[in-house]
Amino acid sequence: MDSLIKEWSLFLDRCLENRLRADLFDEAASQLHGKSPLSGPKLAALLLRPRSATASSLDPRIVIYLERLLALKKVDASDVLWAAFKFSRDHPSKAGEHALPSKDDPSKWQNPSELEEIIFHRLHKAFSTGERPVTNAEALRTLIVASRWMTAMVSSHTSDSMIQAMTGLHQHPQQQSINVREALGMLVVGLIENVKLLELLSRRQAKDIRRRFASSLSTFIPFLSQTSLQIANRLEISQKEHDLHDKSLTNADGDPAENAGLEVAALQVNAVIDLPIINTRAGLYVFLNSLLVARPLTDDFTIVNYLHARYKIDPQNIAAELITASFDVLANAMYRSESTQTMFSLKSFLVNKVPLLMTQPSLSTYPMTAELCIQQALSHVDPNAFPSFSQGFDDMIGNNNSLSDVRQDFLNSCALHGLIPANTVERLLGETPMQGPPETKYVKKDLLAQCKVNFEKVNMFIDELENLDGNGGAIVGAVTEFVSHLCETQMTMYLKTICNLLSRKPQALDVMLQFTSPASILRPLCQFLDEWRYEGDQGEYQPVYDEFGAILVLILASVHRYDLTFHDLGVSHDSFVAQLLERGHLSLVPEDLTEEQGRNLGSWLRGLYDSDKEGLKDDVFASCRPQEFYLIVPTLFGQTVMACSAEVLTLDSVKGGLEYLHETFLLPSLIGGLTWMASHALKQTHQDLDVLMQIFHKLIRSAPTSGDAQAMHSTIMSIVSSRLEKCFRTLKKRHPRRTDIDPLLQAIKGNLDYERTVYASMTELDQWTSAPNNTLTSSLRHTVQQLSHWPSPASLQLNPPSYTHRLLFACLSILGASKTLRAIVDEIKAQTEAGNGAAALDVGVCLICAPSVENSPLTVDVAAPTPPRSRMNLAEMLKDQFDNATSVMSSDPIAAETIVRLHRRVESHLSLIAQAGLQAPQMSLPDVDLVNVQTQDLPGIDIKAMNDAATAAITGTDLNKDSLQRSLDEHLQLSAVDNGLDFSMGVGGSGTAEMGSLQDLSTGGMGNAEMELDMLGDDEDVWGLDFTGIE
């Protein structure tokens, strides 16, 4: 055995060193295996063993040769998986050994995780297509290794997280770690859904393997759900379908712990008959409302997957329903008297986003007549909400919120994107349009090029975002990439101009987030602020504060408008912006200040309030970087208030110093300063209120003089207005005789309602709870009832039922997931008893599966990191209640049946979305096909060799014995070996070489032969299992 390993080790090392072509590798490996056969596990281990202690990149030749050995049937799937596991960081170390790799101990070396990811995807494809297993032994051995790897991965990654928690380093898993988890999850999906494997697992002889696999799977699914909810849901559904549960919970006698009554109830649960599946008009209406209620969650991937899961392969119906629901959402907002900004955002979605969704390749793959879809949708639109132009003029004269131009704008946008001819707009509209489509259809690439040549173009394009003409998507893409380009090239003056323009146009920000994520726009800016340093030859320092402040205001305006966290921004916890969000409103006591912070604070206090100075000198800016300044702003304000109250500083000197805060280079400091003041003013442990009110009046009511400063001041007031209003109204209740509070409330009145969040207003909460016998629960039930009756043929209701997703969020926040779900279940139960159960069930599913900013059951942004979970969502709570449905069956059988039906439908819906979603991500994951390995940006890739390998794998190669011999001699340098490799038998007509005998290979220069023997071990049976009777 030792000599065989040495021969094969030399052969494989020479092949890798000389980048041997795949066809030559096939012939040489076949010859060598004929003379010196080696077991599959050891052969796979020799190929996959790490060849250096610091291997951080993947050698694509290893994947090529692995593919060829699989095709030649020299190794099977279980051999490959076992060898990959042996050299994985997940492989548990033996007792008494150190788990960390050692440069001096090759047996502890580990492969890069990219290799594991590719192997998982390759084997997933093989098992999901039925290519494997070839034998029963291969199937069972694969299950054994997969079980061990799942358990080991959970243990390894969990221990890493525990160590981080113990050391205080709470880090999100790295993307590559998440990729490997997902890849193993997909492999397990392929195993569970393989018919041959399921048939084997059902045999009595395989009960131990089934038990171990089920136990590992039960541990792996919750672990995977932390980062890859869609794959975990798919595994969970398959686990339930094939009863792959851990059944180790038994009583002392070894009998099942359930009593006979629960067994009967379990049978009743399984026997619940499903109601017919219908797609109500309300379902998609609820989904779109959830996407647009606050920060837009309008990721193309999320929407298209949802539509495919709901309407299957029916693009005609998808397009018509999407258009209809978008008009319904807009009509509902008008009837509910939503704000002007909300109406604009909904119009933008209909005009800018929906036509682009209809042009998605996944929707246009199948035949679809866009004109017919649009005509069908417009026939269902409420004519009272979207009147003709003549009626619209009458409404505008009567100060009504007319939407008469929306149908025209939508049709023009469809014509712009080629969905309909421009000459059909008038016919579909039913009257002569007031204007036609834009003359030019923008393309992101062209716009970006124009911006790079002429910076003034970007200002024009940002202004055009408010036109609602269908070009919004291209503009957003170009502006987003241009901002990243400016950050990379450090064009701070241009960044300042763009950020100032965007921060004063919140509606433009709404449009941008309909086409991209917050992280795509803001992460480059946050990183830019992190890396901002004073240059060695810095001339003036005040302009640095000016440019820095403009960028910071845009970031903070977005954070406060959309209730973003540092996770949403895509930055780490130790970044400047994350630290500013966490403690940028906290004043520090002198004992908590560092020496540097103390010096900076003293410098700023002297610079602002020293009466003998001529002005704020540049050395104050030079001695304190902007990042350091903004973190001590609340402390600066705190010291100012305290000094003025103690009469250390006069009020006039304080007001004079605060004048500087009305200049653009220091204006952003008002965000942290006013936030601290609003919090401090509500405390009743001080006598600073009179001073605080004077400073409030100075900073809020005294407008800056320059136009840029006035615009920035208005944006800042919008950011802090919500906190200030709560502060002032509370103070007014405490001090009703004070006359200096009402002017402040009046000053911020025009800046209120800046936030786009899911939190309900006090007016809405009163509306839902103030009526007699009205509660949040009854309001939610009434909403479910109204939505369920909407599609009824007997209903004469043309306008959509009044609905806001803020109601559902309010119920979750105040009542909790359990009581909110109970309200939904109770109403579905009542509707089922009234004969309307199918429609109510669809509404309930859409409410439970609706995406949200927090704890969403669906992935809302595939490009952003998965946000941390803070509580159970409705889907998880439903699963919990389903698990306890047997105990409910005896007391309330109809409620139990409703829970069972709802859970089945929710799980099916989420699974369909996950399956639809898994189609697209595989395009960007490292694919298992050889032809795609070459696309990875890795060192040492021989593109020609990989193309040769792909050709050989697919079509075979017409081999020539002379060229093969020359190539082997040239590449492997084996000509000195006695007789080398013999091709004298010639090549068969089919292209398969008939190999001669293979003489001994020289083992000189092996070096690590003993090490390899130690790594592989000398146990022939690496599995330790008896498969007798299973073949």
Explained architecture:
Belongs to the Mediator complex subunit 5 family. One of its GO terms (biological process) is regulation of transcription by RNA polymerase II. The protein has five domains: 1-92 and 109-242; 295-390 and 402-429, no CATH class; 444-581; 594-749; 762-919, no CATH class. Helices cover 61% and strands 0% of the residues. The chain is built from 51 helices and no strands. Helix 3 packs across helix 5 (77-86), helix 8 (175-192) packs parallel to helix 11 and helix 13 runs parallel beside helix 43 (837-848). The protein is globular and about 95 Å long.
Low-confidence stretches: 165-170, 249-261, 396-400, 920-961, 974-1031
Percent helix, as a range, is 55-70%
Oligomeric form: single chain
Distance between the termini: 27 Å
Structural class: mainly alpha
Biggest sheet descriptor: none
Indicate how many domains the architecture comprises.
Answer: 5
Distinct helical segment count: 51
Shape descriptor: globular
Quote the beta fraction.
under 5%
- Number of beta-strand segments: 0
Mean pLDDT: 81
- Gyration radius from CA atoms, angstroms: 34 Å
